User: What shape does this take?
Amino acid sequence: MTPLCLWTGTRDARVIEIDVQGTDRLGRPGAIETLTVLPEFEAELRAYASRAQRYGALLLIGILGLTGISLIAAVLGVTNVWSGITTVRVIGACVGLMGALMVAVPLATPETLQAFGARRSIRIARVSGVFTLGLGVVIAFFS
Assistant: This one.
């Protein structure tokens, strides 16, 4: 079977192996990983791996932090500490900020990279981010 190019998600006999610094699921630097890529996309894959290492923890902390703020807002709304509209706007803002973060830092899971390739995974993450951003706006201002 011909090897898979991790950038394009296609199989090609011209694929080469490169070593890059990996990251674990928490965005921390991991072991050196051997990735397969077509020679013409080596620079792009190295840049993606570098961005994943640099911004992976930021994405995770941002999403977890915004989720926590949303949960706190929900509790404050249920206990009548905040008014209903304030709670809804805070939750909508958090959802919108999650979407903006997904657009700004379009990282994907290793499974998504294997299934679609890094280039398509970036597009999927950005489209999901735009959808999430729009959902946040709808929640915040039209609920």
